[in-house]
Design a protein that fits this description.
Elements (H helix, E strand, L loop, with lengths): L3 E5 L4 H13 L4 E8 L10 E2 L2 E2 L2 H32 L3 E8 L5 H11 L3 E5 L13 H9 L3 E5 L10 E4 L4 H13 L4 E8 L9 H28 L3 E8 L4 H12 L3 E5 L13 H9 L4 E4 L5
């Protein structure tokens, strides 16, 4: 089944990269390209010219004209996004919305109204439209979205590369694999489990080595479980356990670079049976720092 997308678009380089990534990852998908425009000032706001108050009628006419210009500018940007989306193989339509609230709110409202499975946005950059939908908005979408979010940096990833799935055996990680099976059918995946030893530098002698061996063996079992789930989801999967000597998002982004991954997939919450450092705040680290698209999957509430 082809995915349905809501692409937040402001005409910037990051927004264009987001459209290209969406076309590469979800070929033939239906997409709504949404641009947010800046709201006008309330007509009730008093204005002065030459020390005298401007009449409410003149203010209202001016604000109405400004509103038309803002909407027209947003519509032009959205139309540009649609043309780009269609050139990337997506079936696209345009939409505009007012940014009277925080930009992430109308984005998620539009995604809900249209039944979009994935919200797509860039992670940095500012375009010609008065209000950008990028930058900090990607963090807000990650925090508030009740559906998958694809966050795309301005650098282009190889379209045919594998999907790297962060896995720790938790329900959120299991949901990430299931979602990858639905949204990325037929794509080769690399299941990666990052683990760390909490006693490497605190427990001396043989006890340290025995515990590390147990952790390494448990990590191997976790990877095996993840690979099995990925294959059950119809994905061509292999896996590896990587010991983390740093933050997990650094391990994952480095592995994604080494594997030339097209996308990093991660769940948005949860921890597995081993001392895993994959999820939770790691998803935010991936979105802010990875030079590859990051697909964050929201696990259903228990």
């Amino acid at each position: 089944m082809t995915a349905s997308l809501l692409i937040a678009f402001d005409g910037s380089g990051a927004a264009e990269a987001a459209v290209r990534a969406a076309g590469a990852l979800f070929p033939g998908a239906r997409a709504t390209v949404l641009t947010i425009h800046e709201p006008t000032i309330s007509p009730a706001t008093p204005f002065r010219a030459g020390g005298a108050l401007v009449s409410p009628e003149i203010v209202e006419r001016s604000l109405t004209e400004l509103q038309r210009e803002l909407v027209a500018e947003a519509e032009a940007a959205a139309a540009d996004g649609v043309r780009l989306a269609e050139s990337e193989g997506l079936i696209a339509e345009s939409a505009v919305a007012s940014g009277e609230r925080q930009p992430w709110e109308p984005i998620l409202a539009a995604a809900g109204e249209r039944g979009a499975e994935v919200v797509v946005c860039g992670t940095r950059g500012r375009g010609p439209v008065a209000r950008s939908v990028l930058g900090s908005t990607s963090s807000s979408l990650l925090h508030h979205a009740d559906r998958a979010v694809l966050a795309v940096p301005e650098t282009d990833a190889p379209p045919d590369g594998p999907a790297l799935i962060a896995y720790d055996g938790s329900p959120a990680a299991n949901e990430a694999i299931a979602a990858a099976g639905r949204l990325l059918p037929g794509r080769t995946v690399q299941v990666v489990h990052a683990w760390e030893s909490p006693v490497r530098h605190s427990v001396p002698g043989r006890a340290n080595g025995d515990f590390d061996t147990w952790l390494r063996d448990a990590a191997a079992v976790t990877v095996e479980d993840g690979v099995g789930l990925a294959r059950e989801a119809g994905l061509e999967a292999s896996g590896e356990a990587v010991e983390s000597h740093s933050t997990a998002w650094r391990v994952l982004t480095a592995t994604a670079e080494t594997r030339d991954a097209a996308v990093i997939v991660a769940g948005s919450q949860g921890h597995g049976r081993v001392a895993s450092v994959l999820l939770g705040s790691v998803s935010a680290g991936l979105v802010h720092h990875a030079e590859r698209p990051v697909l964050i999957i929201r696990a259903p509430a228990p």
